[in-house]
Specification:
The structure holds 2 protein chains of 2 kinds. The longest helix of chain A has 30 residues. In chain A, the strands form 3 sheets. A 7-stranded mixed sheet of chain A has the order 7-6-8-9-10-13-14, with helices on both faces. A 5-stranded parallel sheet of chain A has the order 2-1-3-4-5, with helices on both faces. A two-stranded antiparallel ribbon of chain A has the order 11-12. Chain A is 48% helix and 18% strand. Chain A contains 13 helices and 14 strands. In chain A, strand 1, helix 2 and strand 2 form a beta-alpha-beta unit. Chain B has one domain. Chain B has 12 helices and 3 strands. Chain B starts with a helix and ends in a 14-residue tail after the last helix. Chain B is globular. Chain B is an all-alpha fold. Classes of the chains: A alpha/beta, B mainly alpha. The interface between A and B is large, with 39 and 45 residues.
């Protein structure tokens, strides 16, 4: 008897409590719009994650201070994919099935964007990556976009740069992260290197658990390449250059956008000096607006922004703009999500494109951005500096 | 030849680190038959403690290292008191799951305290000979000493820091071996390992013995953590990556057997380094961890209780 009463009481309470949030929810959705940001906030790309988070937060704060999106507050929801496919799938499922989230900025790691792609597509929600460069990230899904170049472009660029600018170097050893990003970039680089006549003497892999690279470096040293190309992320790359110098390797190091983090410099210390790297954006190459954002970022967080903060700032703003132009309170969630996708897909010519701090962004039919250039940086005295010779004058030579 | 001798050195250093961690797994297992998954986290805390002591408290490295060992011993003891002692007579599975929980908890605690980003150990706080070894620019014809390393003829190169890791691992192993075989507490440990109930009946305070075991294993783990910290990098997940390899080492050597853990650690180190160094086309380097496991599996197929383990009939 008593159990029965308690049961009834619980049912009653739950139904009363259950009704309230539903009503509240609707009211709230009038006042705010939610956008998710997925990135590696922990794990071995955590330094990127921190910059991504701050880049998004800065833009959201600015939007809200200026009155929000059509008067609605922009609320960011963060999801940590730890840079692993497993977590990325969990985060993607959570965001895609959350009925308050309109679009997703992320993921960063190519493997994570790829892992989430199917889930976002199935649930009809936009995934706009500010960092994934693997060639196939946007392929086969209308819902995945990115606002930076692809690795086939980057890999080709690096091979050409070594061939045409660093002309004294003939042989290359490659050390690559055995994931979608590292492998894809290595393949693109190797194909072009072969085409332009660079001699790839060895390609050694490592996985995310590696922090001791002495075994790989000892075999590379025996092949004595002029350049070592690292296709991986900043943390392990920093340990590689450090341990390579200790192993007596004197080769030139060349990395890609994966090592473009201030943490590369702090971890590698003096060993970082002289390292070349490519990146989709530099604040030095950006305009006045980029300089303003850099200043605001530094004032807010006490550190200078990096490339990924800038790309995330733009990605967040693109989503906000899409919501501002298309959001309809009367429409269903699926319709609103679809409208954002259609808006992004309509940015398909230089004229239509989005003009942000990282330059012009517009998409091809896959959702890739193909117009953005690569910049070359070189580490000098523990700082990233713009390399004297860049892509633009390189291409005009040909 | 240069390549081979250099790989030999690489393998010894890595193996030494694995051995130090593996001992912690094996000691606890030997006595209470618990796979203490949180041991990898103790190792990680060891690195973070030393890091904090030298950066925040400005202590010299030689004070920070033993202090970090003490702190880790404390955490190990606390872990036993809080998490494992209440489950001493519960089903083994409960303790195992608790161990996984403690491991996840500690890893996230480290993330909260120190953040998720990787941190290098500040080399200026290290004594000169423990800093990054810079090899001579020309290969030397004979054995010689530089400021940070020993240069071997032919170009192979052993930083003092790595030599320290090997020697320290060796010294601590010998000390541990003596402790277990010669002292009274060592005898009590062996008695507990054989039969805890009987040991208790004979007047041995088994709870005390277990706590001391946790303390010793944790202190050794801390040394390994500090060594990896100064040699590589400090991050909240370091305990998981190195811990799993060390666990494989303990199993390979025969879990519960201290000599087995040392030999197992060295074997896993050799398997990883020589697999990565000599198996071509990236199969070796890309799957170095997998190669270590294949070696472990191969050994336990032939000797199911590990190299030094005694085969015992499972109690019904």
């Amino acid at each position: 008897m008593r159990n029965w009463l308690v049961g009834l009481l619980i049912v009653g309470l739950v139904s009363v409590w259950g009704c309230q949030p539903a009503g509240k929810d609707q009211q709230e959705s009038q006042r705010e719009v939610r956008v998710a940001v997925a990135g590696p906030f922990t794990g071995n790309a955590a330094a990127f994650g921190e910059m991504i988070k701050r880049g998004a937060e800065l833009r959201a704060k600015e939007i809200n201070e200026a009155g929000g999106i059509n008067g609605m507050k922009l609320t960011l929801v963060f999801g940590d994919d730890a840079g692993t496919e497993k977590e990325a799938r969990a985060v993607a499922t959570r965001f895609a099935t959350d009925r308050r989230i309109l679009a997703v900025v992320g993921h960063f790691n190519s493997a994570c964007s790829l892992a989430g792609k199917g889930i976002y597509k199935e649930n009809g929600i936009v995934e706009l990556s500010p960092g994934s460069t693997n060639v196939s990230v946007c392929e086969g899904s209308d819902w995945t976009f990115r606002n930076l170049y692809r690795d086939d472009f980057q890999g080709e660029f690096i091979a050409k740069y070594i061939k045409n600018v660093l002309t004294e170097f003939k042989s290359v050893g490659v050390l690559f992260d055995n994931d979608d990003y590292g492998r894809g970039l290595k393949d693109a680089f190797a194909a072009e290197a072969e085409a332009v006549g660079l001699n790839i003497v060895t390609a050694e892999a490592y996985d995310r658990e590696n922090t001791d690279f002495k075994a790989q470096l000892t075999s590379i040293k025996a092949k004595n390449p002029d350049v070592i190309f690292i296709s991986g992320l900043y943390g392990q790359a920093a340990l590689i250059v450090k341990q390579a110098r200790e192993a007596g390797i004197t080769a030139q190091f060349f990395g890609a956008d994966g090592i473009d983090s201030p943490d590369f410099l702090t971890i590698a210390g003096v060993a970082a000096n002289g390292t070349y790297l490519t990146t989709p954006f530099t604040f030095g190459g950006g305009g006045e607006e980029a300089a303003r954002v850099a200043e605001a970022f530094a004032a807010e967080f006490g550190v200078a922004p990096d490339t990924w903060a800038a790309l995330t700032y733009d990605a967040t703003d693109m989503i906000a703009e899409a919501i501002g132009k298309t959001y309809n309170r009367e429409a269903t969630l699926a319709e609103n999500r679809k409208a954002i996708r259609d808006y992004l897909a309509s940015l398909d010519t230089p004229e239509e494109g989005y003009k942000g701090i990282t330059g012009l962004t517009y998409f091809d039919k896959n959702g890739d951005t193909v117009n953005k250039p690569a910049y070359v940086k070189i580490v000098k005295d523990g700082k990233f500096t713009t390399a004297p010779q860049q892509l633009l004058n390189l291409e005009s030579q040909e | 030849m240069e390549q081979f001798s250099q790989q030999l050195i690489n393998a010894l250093v890595l193996g030494g680190i694995y051995a130090l961690i593996a001992v912690g797994y094996t000691m606890v297992y030997g006595i209470i038959e618990l796979i203490n998954f949180a041991h990898g986290e103790i190792f990680m805390f060891g690195a973070y403690f030393a890091f904090t002591l030298v950066t925040v408290f400005n202590l010299p490295f030689w004070v920070a290292l033993p202090l970090s060992m003490l702190l880790c011993a404390g955490i190990g003891m606390l872990m036993d008191l809080v998490a494992y002692r209440p489950l001493r007579n519960a089903a083994r599975l409960s303790a195992l799951i608790t161990a996984i929980g403690v491991s996840i908890g500690l890893q996230n605690l480290a993330r909260i305290i120190w953040g998720a980003r990787q941190r290098p150990f500040p080399s200026e706080s290290l004594p000169a000979f423990l800093r990054q070894g810079i090899p001579p620019s020309e290969p030397l014809s004979a054995f010689s000493l530089t400021e940070t390393a020993i240069a071997l003829p032919g170009g192979a190169f052993l930083p003092y820091r790595d030599l320290c890791i090997i020697l320290l691992a060796l010294a601590l192993m010998i000390a541990l071996n003596r402790l277990v075989s010669l002292t009274k507490i060592g005898k009590a440990m062996r008695a507990c390992a054989q039969n805890r109930v009987a040991a208790n009946l004979m007047g041995i305070n088994t709870n005390r013995v277990i706590v001391i075991t946790f303390a010793i294993g944790s202190a050794l783990g801390a040394v390994a953590g500090v060594m990896v910290g100064i040699k590589e990098i400090i991050e909240p997940t370091m305990g998981y990556y190195k811990g799993v390899a060390a666990f494989a080492a303990a199993v390979l050597g025969g879990i519960g057997n201290i000599t087995g853990a040392m030999v197992g650690g060295l074997l896993i180190g050799f398997a990883e380094v020589f697999g990565a160094g000599y198996i071509p086309y990236g199969y070796g380097s890309g799957y170095r961890v997998a190669i270590a496991y294949i070696v472990m599996i191969a050994v336990i197929i032939i000797r199911p209780s590990g190299l030094f383990g005694k085969s015992t009939a499972t109690r019904a």
